[in-house]
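To close the section, here is one more complete example, presented without commentary so you can practise reading it yourself. The ligand is zinc ion.
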Amino acid sequence: IPGIAQADIDSFYQALKSSNRILALCGAGLSAASGLPTFRGAGGLWRTHDAMSLATPEAFAVDPGLVWQFYSYRRHMALKADPNRAHFALAELAKRKDFLCISQNVDGLSQRANHPSSSLKLIHGSLFDVKCTDFYCTHTEANFTDPIVPALEIPTIDDREIDPTSNTTREEVDISDINVKLTDVPVKDLPHCPTCETGLLRPGVVWFGEALPSATMDSIEDFLSSGPKVDIMLVIGTSATVHPAAGYIEAARYKGARIAVINMEDEAAHRSGLDFDRGDWFFRGDAAKVVPEILK
Ligand code: BJW
Ligand code: ZN
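Output:
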């Protein structure tokens, strides 16, 4: 791989060969090569909105129609995307090592790369889990319907003549583009709960200020504290800025793990507190290329 020293790949490979337990923390950079935008930096804007400001309970309370349009669009893009070689390499690692993969991603691409569910911990939920917002209702469902309700259908460029005998489909409007007019979706047309019949449904993702799924966190805690020690921690395509996720890097280091950061940016290596004197590694590059290479 251009820019990465063969000696680093070799030393990582030796460590991998003799390792028993491996932990990974994955972020949006893992799916970047699949065409899905990251949160921070270029692509982190949805129309005029910072993607992070839409990922809050407050934004949903103020404008559920807008927040649903954002998530419906992301569900659509995620369903259109394919897992890349890094998703497959991690799924493969789970079959040959004692490996736990913590993913902050909600796009479903690891699952679609057949990552065994027992070794995949989705700490920020999933775009394809939907749950009721009513405080007294516990309804949750797996839902892959796109669009989830007709009102959230992505508009097509319909002011253009398409020959009905051709295979040409009407081109979708890119509603993430600020120049494309977005029509308001009234609350009554948003997805509602089939159980209580009154509650508004919401995406089953973890927004800022919300607790992470406790059973998931417990199993990560277990992996770190019981059984043999974690030898290597992979930190793949994450800015390591969101907590408690980023805290797992420190926790693994504290338990004696060597850390390998795979990222396009040096900043991520700094944030992960890499220490080359302890034998940590930084592999700069596209996760989709680097991950399959170092896990070969
Ligand atoms: C490539 C690449 C390529 C590009 N190859 N690399 C301690 C300290 C400070 C603050 C807090 C703290 N503890 C809690 C907080 C508050 C808050 C927080 O962390 N704030 C910080 C921002 C300061 N945390 C929370 O609120 C969490 N909840 C909580 O703590 O609850 C407490 C509680 C307890 C009990 C009861 C109630 C409450 C919840 C956090 C939820 C985060 N949710 C989101 C949205 C999910 C839904 C959605 O998708 O819309 O999760 S935010 C967003 O950030 C998303 C991501 O999973 C997460 C992480 O982002 P990620 O994946 O790292 O992406 P980017 O864009 O940041 O980085 C991409 C990286 O890839 C970059 O480094 C690129 O260089 C790289 N890259 N292309 C390799 N091809
Ligand atoms: Zn309900």
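Once you have examined the tokens, check your reading against these statements. The mean pLDDT is 93. The domain at 37-80+127-205 is CATH 3.30.1600.10 (SIR2/SIRT2 'Small Domain').
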